[in-house]
From TrEMBL:
Its cofactor is Mg(2+). PANTHER family: CITRATE LYASE SUBUNIT BETA (PTHR32308:SF10), LYASE BETA SUBUNIT, PUTATIVE (AFU_ORTHOLOGUE AFUA_4G13030)-RELATED (PTHR32308). It comes from the Bacteria. Keywords: Lyase, Magnesium, Metal-binding. This is CoA ester lyase. Pfam families: HpcH_HpaI. The keyword Membrane does not apply. One of its GO terms (molecular function) is lyase activity. The keyword NAD does not apply. Residues 29-194 form the HpcH/HpaI aldolase/citrate lyase domain.
Length: 354
């Protein structure tokens, strides 16, 4: 382990100075596209202003025979596109694959100045982050890149979950974590065959009434991901980085997708992946605080004055701890409104209606 004094030193001579804090940039949806797919690639300029993050995916879902095409397609897109204030991320191949090294050796010199974040899949421990950290520093120094590229790890192996705290704090580059429910399910030997979401077999059942075990017993489907998301959120917050729900594979089921995203939002996540254009508005809706909630939060903050003591508002007790929660909601709303003029209008209109 590096000493605390060395933690923020560049890992290569000439590399940019590491950031001391991860800037909060709206990232409600990390929109995945396959840069080797001409139809998807053609949609990037139109999608850029509609999403918070565009992610050129090089890993799973890109055919092995298309890996080089995806990498060079991303370079072309990165060079040709004006992303405005939309972030450009990539997901490189896993570190044990035949492609990961060339992903980094190609992307950093070619479009490193435009890449905000590199997502690393199947991270198992701090050593994976340390490897990427040093290599990025060397490549940034060589390419003369002036701001450090940040790193995002996917939590998608049982070992990764067991080491989530050390992964989160492994480098000043660590920007956040995403849940990777499909690989994680396989790694844990869970008996599901889905990409995220619930399962009808994972439930609790109300007690029987009398001796009849079969009728009148309501069942409640449970969230398979609750434990991991909660653990991920704690590890992220403890290390000043951002937690995200990952993919929801049933593209057609927009209702359950919204539920899964909302569970993650309520537990502390700041965004989720969108795999298809249909999931972009779902993430935007869920990860933007509801205008009525924002109005309420602002009212509590105003009525609580200096934020101490206890007051009663509409029959509910408010104190130092509830005003802190309200500040989380109000500050998120302010940050998102700066980027999203429609949302800014909705928040302003809700204040006027009050
Ligand atoms: C899921 C898809 C394969 C569906 O594609 P398709 O069958 O083409 O859908 P549609 O016909 O409904 O598409 C309509 C048009 O929209 C374009 N399209 C589709 N998806 C995207 C996209 N992501 N970005 C931009 N444009 C998109 C289609 O090309 C159609 O265009 P047109 O014909 O001109 O109208 C597909 O959506 C897809 O491949 N999505 C990305 C999948 C992906 O990235 N998967 C990896 C992330 S999940 C994962 O890795 C698991 C995780 O790691 C874990 O372990 O949990
Ligand atoms: Mg995966």
């Amino acid at each position: 382990m590096r000493s605390a004094k060395d933690f923020f030193r560049p890992l290569a001579v000439g590399a940019p100075t590491p950031v001391r804090e991860i800037p909060f940039r709206p990232s409600r949806m990390i929109h995945f596209f396959d840069p080797s797919n001409p139809k998807m690639a053609a949609k990037v300029p139109d999608l850029a202003p509609k999403v918070d993050v565009l992610l050129g995916n090089l890993e799973d879902a890109v055919q092995a025979s298309n890996k080089e095409a995806a990498r060079s397609g991303l370079v072309d897109i990165g060079k040709a596109t004006d992303f405005g204030d939309t972030q450009l991320w990539t997901r490189i191949n896993s570190l044990d694959s035949p492609w990961a090294l060339d992903d980094l050796l190609t992307l950093v010199p070619a479009i490193g100045g435009k890449l905000d974040v590199i997502m690393v899949p199947k991270v198992e421990g701090a050593e994976d982050i340390h490897y990427v950290d040093r290599l990025l520093a060397q490549l940034e120094a060589k390419a003369g890149i002036e701001r450090p590229i940040l790193v995002h790890a996917i939590l998608e192996t049982a070992t990764g979950v067991a080491n989530v705290e050390e992964i989160s704090g492994a480098s000043p580059r660590m920007q956040g974590l995403s849940l990777g429910p499909a690989d994680l399910a396989a790694s844990r030997r869970m008996k599901t065959t889905r990409v995220g979401g619930g399962h009808p077999g994972y439930l609790v059942r109300s007690d029987p009434i009398g001796d009849d075990l079969t009728s009148g017993r309501t069942t409640y489907q449970q969230d398979l991901w609750h434990y991991t998301v909660a653990r991920m959120v704690d590890a992220c917050v403890a290390n000043g980085i951002l937690p995200y729900y990952g993919p929801f594979g049933d593209i057609r089921d927009v209702v359950a997708c919204e539920d899964q995203f909302r569970n993650a939002y309520l537990l502390g996540c700041v965004g989720a992946w969108s795999l298809h254009p249909a999931q972009i508005p779902i993430a935007r809706k869920v990860f933007s605080p509801d205008p009525a909630e924002v109005r309420w939060a602002r009212r509590v903050i105003a009525e609580m004055g200096d934020g101490t003591g206890a007051v009663m508002i509409d029959g509910k007790m408010q104190d130092d701890a509830s005003v802190k929660q309200c500040r989380v909601v109000a500050e998120l709303a302010d940050a998102l409104a700066e980027r999203d003029p429609e949302l800014a209008k909705a928040y302003a209109a809700s204040e006027e209606d009050a």
